[in-house]
Design brief:
The structure is a homodimer of 143-residue chains. Chain A is mainly α. Chain A has one domain: Winged helix-like DNA-binding domain superfamily/Winged helix DNA-binding domain (Arc Repressor Mutant, subunit A). The first copy, chain A, has five helices and two strands, in the order H-H-H-H-E-E-H. Chain A is globular and about 60 Å long. Chain A starts with 13 loop residues before the first helix and ends in a 16-residue tail after the last helix. The C terminus of chain A is likely disordered. Chains A and B meet through helix 1, helix 2, helix 3 and helix 5 of A and helix 1, helix 2, helix 3 and helix 5 of B. The first copy, chain A, binds a DNA duplex (30 and 30 nucleotides) through helix 1 and helix 4.
Chain lengths: 143, 143
DNA sequence: CCTAGGTAGGTGTATATACACTCCAGCCGT
DNA sequence: ACGGCTGGAGTGTATATACACCTACCTAGG
């Protein structure tokens, strides 16, 4: 019963802009990391663990700004690959995640690829407007 | 064989920042839209269709900056709810997506909720630093 | 007409994401 | 010691996301 709403305001949707930007950047990082068998999210978790040392799931999730339960699933994949393991803890409720040797090697090996992607995005943000207006598709033109 | 890599550079990862930001913003929009039974992504698609009229999947995906196959899945959910349908086309390969009456009503009904979320993010970006450094969790403090 | 190639779209599979709910372990008061 | 409470973590379910692959349809050349 209300056709007077001005839907054109939706063109400036912050959520769409943020998601679109994240998707584009993620596709680039995934592309660079693919030869190493790592996804962008997985790289983030491994890097966070390398920098912070063994960390319980809840704390790590907060650090990364994602849901605790999401990190649980991501950690399961990383464990399956042998890149992280559960560290012992005095408090049996905690299950600190710890980078394994294989995980550290994987991370260090993938670092140059990560750096490449990171530098590419640096150059984009320098060249383009400060807002995050990456035209759709421009991200993949590197191939 | 290389422990000399400076992993601390990963603290400034553009991909993590973009994803973290998108997750936070999405959680807010989802929270506002939840009473209407809509997700942020779904709202985006409905709004895009309302503004552009019937559009083939590929074109709409480009407009929204997401993978064509991703839009296929999203569209399936929207169709299931009766909010979009396949419009006829001369070219039988194309399957233009079209907003249904129910879809338009759903969209218009959810618009105020969307606007609320949009305005909230406006205020954040005005108040905070221009980069997108939302401290983890601050997004949910509105509850 | 008929086939080769290109275009529009869907499927299989895997991961990412989050909410609601459940479970287990420690803690604390009586 | 027990019983409830709280905190840390996992599960069930649904959607989002993308790549590799597959199918259907048009169109141009023969």
């Amino acid at each position: 019963m209300d056709a007077t709403v001005d839907l054109s305001a939706c063109r400036g949707c912050h959520c769409l802009a943020a998601r679109r930007h994240a998707r584009a950047v993620t596709r680039l990082f995934d592309e660079k990391l693919r030869p190493h068998g790592l996804r962008a999210t997985q790289f983030s978790v491994l890097a966070a663990l390398a920098l912070a040392g063994p960390t319980p799931v809840t704390g790590l999730a907060e650090k990364l700004g994602l849901e605790r339960t999401t990190l649980t699933r991501i950690a399961a994949v990383l464990e399956r690959h042998g890149w992280v393991s559960i560290a012992p803890s005095e408090d049996a409720r905690e299950r600190p995640l710890r980078l394994t040797g294989a995980g550290r090697r994987k991370l260090v090996g993938a670092f140059p690829a990560w750096k490449e992607a990171q530098d590419l995005v640096d150059r984009w943000t320098d060249a383009q407007d400060p807002a995050d207006r990456y035209p759709a598709g421009s991200v993949r033109q590197t191939r």
